[in-house]
Amino acid sequence: MQTIGSLDELRAAVGAPAAVSGYFTLDQRTIDTFAELTHDRQWIHVDPVRAAAESPYGCTIAHGLLTLSMVTAAFGQCYRFPNRKLSLNYGFDRVRFTGAVPAGSRLRGTFALQRIEDVRPGEVRCFWQVELQVEGAERPAMVATWLIQMRY
Questions:
Q1: What is the C-alpha to C-alpha distance for residues 63 and 75, in angstroms, rounded to an integer?
Q2: What is the per-residue pLDDT across 42-60, written as a single tens digit (0 to 9) for each?
Q3: Strands (E), the chain
Q4: Which of 52, 57, 58, 88 is at 20 to 30 A from 101, Cα to Cα?
Q5: Torsion region of 15: left, alpha or beta (phi above 0 gives left; psi -120 to 50 gives alpha)
């Protein structure tokens, strides 16, 4: 876990090697819960029998938006910001779901701070290059640029 305690330390982190989270599992129960919360009950996510028979993956897969939502959990394993006064999710640029996440897969996140833009004194917008990777897969399941506004 990396600690970034000031705006100067945050600026110094631009271009540093990516931080990598530990693995976490996206199991069928989590997928089903997400389906209920979002009312997205498409069979490829929630019907293991049909997915085994008809899906090109041979099983159910996680929703892309569920995969995207796991970014915060992985990020929290990589960084802490003890002196930060405020942090706001500003959104995502170029989110791409580049690989399926089969139920029961283990995922991890990688985060690299690409650049920072000043917003006002003591506040910046950070552009993080994010990948979520399925253990054993050749390519990431999701890639995006995540914008977070931070105030120190």
A1: 19
A2: 999 999 999 999 999 999 9
A3: 2-3, 19-20, 24-26, 79-80, 86-97, 105-120, 123-134, 142-151
A4: 88
A5: left
What letter represents residue 96's amino acid?
R
Per-residue CA distances from 113 to 9, 35, 42, 51, 130 (Å): 12, 32, 35, 38, 9
**Which residue matches tokens 């000031």?**
6
Domain edges within the chain: 2-26+62-151
- For 87-138, write each residue's pLDDT tens digit: 999 999 999 999 999 999 999 999 999 999 999 999 999 999 999 999 999 9
Structure token digits, residue 128: 């993080």
CATH level 3 topology of 2-26+62-151? Thiol Ester Dehydrase; Chain A (3.10.129)
